[in-house]
């Protein structure tokens, strides 16, 4: 039965599973509350990590304080959509399943006039009002602001009021007022994650997949784009492959660019690609020339704007 209620993610990163029974015993730390992402990822050696993709177990991830709409409940699980992640799978937002233990209902979440704090460090610690460490939050976690001072930002969280160090966040009037970066800013955002291991479905600084990486680096620069690579390739401004600029998104397809689209990366400039490749690899910058990616390159899109456009 559809119930359509507004809930918030109450763990640093909630994984959006394909079905209520997709998670495995090895995923216990990822479906609990509290989660232990480091422990989970450490246990995910190549084969069980690859199965997240090959077994179609995981769809995406959602960050702390992000809103989801609950459509249905089944045992300990909730079927949700994520309005912040647009998808051709559901016009309302990205669909999937999250453990109910990782969600909390909040009616008084933020206000239209609430400022927001956005985590700008790769990871940031959230503290209790007594300045005791509570959680480790991902890059680009967004929380409503209650009070600002020089050292601490008091924020609203799914569990009450907490503190973030001022040096770890940027405070904006709203998400709509996040400054729009240019292509080089998108590249610079991505460079800080070099050597971070790939994670299928990953949308956090604990691990990104290819389109989660491009989505998050664009978001960090004020551009909200679709979640998946094939949807990202359908939007944005088409760019000729001979007129690429740093920050453009490059798309790759099987059969030397003529088949199914399967990958996205960020053009780094000078013929190089910045991307999160696949399971077993880490975020890297490579020369396109002489690689399979050179043969598979099929399209480019620009989501960023030049000054004055």
From TrEMBL:
Statement: the UniProt record of this protein carries the keyword Protease: yes
One Gene Ontology term from the biological process aspect of the record: proteolysis
GO MF term list: cysteine-type peptidase activity
Pfam families referenced in this protein's UniProt entry, alphabetically: NLPC_P60, SH3_YKFC_2nd
Domain called NlpC/P60: residue spans: 180-309
Record-linked Gene3D superfamilies: endopeptidase domain like (from Nostoc punctiforme) (3.90.1720.10), SH3 Domains (2.30.30.40)
Keywords associated with the record: Hydrolase, Protease, Thiol protease
Domain of life: Bacteria
InterPro entries from the UniProt entry: NLP_P60_dom, Papain-like_cys_pep_sf, Peptidase_C40, SH3_YKFC_2nd
PANTHER family (UniProt xref): GAMMA-D-GLUTAMYL-L-LYSINE DIPEPTIDYL-PEPTIDASE (PTHR47053:SF3), MUREIN DD-ENDOPEPTIDASE MEPH-RELATED (PTHR47053)
Similarity comment: family membership: Belongs to the peptidase C40 family.
Protein name per the record: NlpC/P60 family protein
Organism: Cytobacillus oceanisediminis
